[in-house]
Amino acid sequence: MTILGWAQIALVMAAVVAAAIPLARAIAAVAAGRVTLLAPLERAIYTAGGIDPARGMGWQGYTLAMLATNLAGFLLLYALLRLQGLLPFNPQGFGGLSPWLAFNTAVSFVTNTNWQAYSGEAAMSYLSQMAGLTVQNFLSAATGMALALALCRAFSGGGLKDLGNFWADFVRLNLYVLLPLAILVGLAFVALGMPQTLAAYVEATTLEGGTQTIPLGPAAFQVAIKHLGTNGGGFFGANSAHPFEGPSALATSLQIWSHQVIPFALVLTFGHIVRDIRQGRALLAVMLAFVIAGTWIVYAAEAGGNPLHLAAGVDPAMGNMEGKEVRFGQALVALFTATTTGASNGAVNAMFDSFTPLGGLVPLFLMQLGEVLPGGVGSGLYGMLVFVLLAVFVAGLMVGRTPEYLGKKVQAREVKLAMLAVLVLPAVILGFTAVSLVLPAAASSIQDAGPHGLTEMLYAYSSAAGNNGSAFGGLAADTPWLDATLGIAMLLGRFAYIVPMMAIAGSLAAKPKLAASTGTFPTHGPLFAGLLAGLILILGGLQFMPALALGPVAEHFVLAAGKIF
Amino acid sequence: MNMTQAIPADEARRGTRRAALLTHPILRRAALDALRKLDPRRLVRNPVIFVTEVVAILVTILSGRAALLGEPWTFQVGIALWLWLTVLFSTFAEAVAEGRGRAQAESLRRTRTDARAKLLVRGDDRALWQPRAATDLRVGDLVLAEAGDLIPSDGEVVEGIASVNEAAVTGESAPVIRESGGDRSAVTGGTLVVSDWLVLRITAAPGATFLDRMIALVEGAGRQKTPNEIALDILLAGMTIIFLIAVATLVGLASWGGRPPSVPVLAALLVTLIPTTIGGLLSAIGIAGMDRLVRFNVLATSGRAVEAAGDVDVLLLDKTGTITLGNRQAAGFIPVPGVTERELAEAAALSSLADETPEGRSILAFARERNGIAAPALPAGARVSPFTAQTRISGLDLPTGAYRKGAVDSLARMLGTEPPPALREAVDRIARAGATPLAVAMDGRLLGAIELKDIVKTGMRARFDALRRMGIRTVMVTGDNRLTAAAIAAEAGVDDFIAEATPEDKLAYIRRAQAEGRLVAMAGDGTNDAPALAQADVGLAMQTGTQAAREAGNMVDLDSDPTKLIEVVEIGKQLLITRGALTTFSIANDVAKYFAILPAIFAASYPELGALNVMRLASPESAILSAVIFNALIIVALVPLALRGVAYVPVGAAALLRRNLLIYGLGGLVAPFVGIKLIDLLLVLLGLA
Fold it and tell me: Which residues are listed as membrane-spanning (chain A) (predicted)?
């Protein structure tokens, strides 16, 4: 680790927080319907859709509207992927995707996961990339943000009957937040050297006289929303490690900024909506602490290098450079790794399969902690609030009152729903991983023996269920079993979590908002932040510790003992 | 770890029905009950312990099978044994908690004898009655109770006045007066008429009397889980499911590149991870919380009410008798110019020599205390001029002079003089401060004023400060005018007051506070308190009060001491804190168990994971066994804490949280590392591992 490396990390994170503060206020204004820049366009959309944006929806109505939108998005994307061979903007003449892969990919982009069992430049037509995947990048991001706003509103007052209007939230978030930001960041990416063209791939003759196909495409703007919406699905197979998708250290830094700025801003937006910004700051502090800690471990582990390589005489100054791009360096790789998994983005600028065991443990564990650090756009906030309710419930009893958060009592119904939501992740991740490890048809996808092989499988389901989408690598993912089960894992990880979470929102909204006093459990200061961090760490750790012990932890100690498989 | 026992200080002082925490007969009975409670049909109500029992059965069968097949079985039997002990310790904890209540119920039941009632044939004729078994009485029957009779059932006095010994319900043997009308008209079945007679209208159906309810309550019969308990149960069940998933999937995970651990080992892992500590103690905590209230001589109609007490934000307290001593006392002498304070004090004392009212006594006492004036005995030649409602003046004629005291205007009028401006000023100042002025005269000359104050009970200010730190607002309710009320409120240190309060005012105040999202508690005794008692979230009715008040409240104080509302709140808080603390402790414990068990169960596949064995436990078997044993023993170790409750300190929520997180969170992290290591050392020492 170097001072310069830490300076890079500090600079990027400072830029994230600095931008999140005004953005939070802007999102709060959008949520309240105070932004009317594009009012005529908005009105036209509402008229066309027969929508009354002022009509409030209860939690069921809001959830159903969201589910209907997502189902429609899934069906359209599935059809597009299957039929892309017949459709225009396909200069390379790619055929339609197989039913399994199309299902997996459609689910993946609808659930904001962006797990990719395909390689973009070898499978996707420009139309699929632009009208299918990019559109879903916007819609799934807006879906997450809208749901988070609904939950925020539940805390904003007492005896509320509705959580807002899904359609209005959905339209406004796209128009006023995601689109403007994506245009700005997309232009920056073009300036930094990313292609944005509909021209066909270029055939080049190399110095050695061989021919090379250089893939192109409308990449820059898709990459912008890929990060801003914490989607993470790369335009090219190598994702942000590809020279066209991550052309420079500056580009990769801007990507790191992009996939964190909205999740962090939303936490502060929450503070604005509940009219107590300190609440938002406390959550932000917890998230930031985990991101920094995760970055530190990856940085230390990777910069420290592989003990076997060092023993073989590799220069220790470089650290473990396998699978990493020299133009990024260890610090930006570590920060990208911790943030892309912490923020449920899933883009990668290095290959995790080549990391040291501890370096690979961090992204895996950050996903298993529930994708709340800071998590995906919207999903991070609502996931974090579910953890907050549990932390408040357990520890809040210790102040001698029925636990309450922001004046809302946390009672049996909320605890039940929160536990239902929290159960999804361990059930899906551990369940599918265990079955896939003993099922020969599934286990044959694994490339490596020993604990590293277990990590490859565990990582895939953790990534899918956490709606992250990053791949550890080393897993042949495009098989019917993995396409189907990972698709199911993504669906459950997204919607089996959302439904109980929205039920909590409905239940809390209707409750009276109790006045705070000195007897109320304080949920801002460092004490609560520490408690929340402890709960997330212990709850996540307790669930996944046995699995991790058999994977990266075992690999770490085995490697230290000089053993390989 | 700090396991300070927390018996409310007042409990000891009051000396009410305080049984020893654990006595031999209770323990013996509890041991038997603990076995009876192993019935899975009963245990299923407690998901954590139910899962433990199912796992214990499974391991028992497996170890039996191993023994039959001649495989190594001692380790398996060891695990099975400790799993059973884990279940037993939990049922034992519940049985002990119930046992303490049962002992009290039995002493109560003895008083509910097969009383015979004198059923009046005609309501207006006391002479005409026929005997009837108490159990055959109907609501609305009129019965006669004479000296020496047990009151057959709960009722309302419709005629007569009598002294009644209520020791059976209150434990207080001094008889109390019961009479028709007014606020002392309720009588309780099982109490004894000591003198005179009463005609009662029966108000409770057989089996539904106050005593019956009390017995059911202390026995914990038909105990409903409280809302918080239900929520906590769900959390614990959810965590149990999570750990079931984590452990069950280990079979698949561990078979990758190795052999999965055996079922007994996985069972041990599961049981040590699921929150058995809090799961095993949860119902004992609830029963003990209720029991603490009963031993404090307060009966709650439900556990829900006890929990609500912990949540209270606003306390409505009556001024008289609760905040102040209830009678005015001398608190100052203010002489007019030209008169010394000592002269005034002397005159005041002499004017009060024959005054037997508490005010009069207090003037003598104050003169002695402040001015060192020893009041002489009433001299032989003294002529007493008694207080009358007409004159509002009293006094004494002595050879040394004629001494008078009384309301300032009355005295001035009698003397035919205008009070001097200095006196007028002093009087106004006293009235503004919420006190009552009395003028003193000697031989027709006004000497000055006595300040009579409503004296705030000692220590009330500190208690209100403590309540404020807990985030609870105290509101004083009084019939006094605003000026007086404001002054006393300021002196007592309450946050707010309702002056010239009518029952409607109280009700309106409660409704307003509730609309602002606050929970309100109040104490009351009169029939006109009933609506407010019913509206309040916690209504503490006095045992001496009316039947209407007792029905409206959700708690009854057998000592009829409204100040106890404060302790009731503390007991409610203590109950919740105990649950939260043990839950936190239970979850924090799991970290150490992973460090003990994970390296042990994967030792065969990855011996390198031994690096995680930070406790340096002797062998995989001893590590697993030590964790299981610790997990079982910690339940027993925490039974006293569960029964007594975690110490409650009246500080703000933030400080309380910091303190409890440190003790139970951090303590919960560290304690098992130490405990498991010690057990492991012991196992090695005994050659068991």
Answer: 62-81, 93-110, 130-152, 173-194, 256-275, 282-301, 381-399, 420-443, 484-506, 527-549
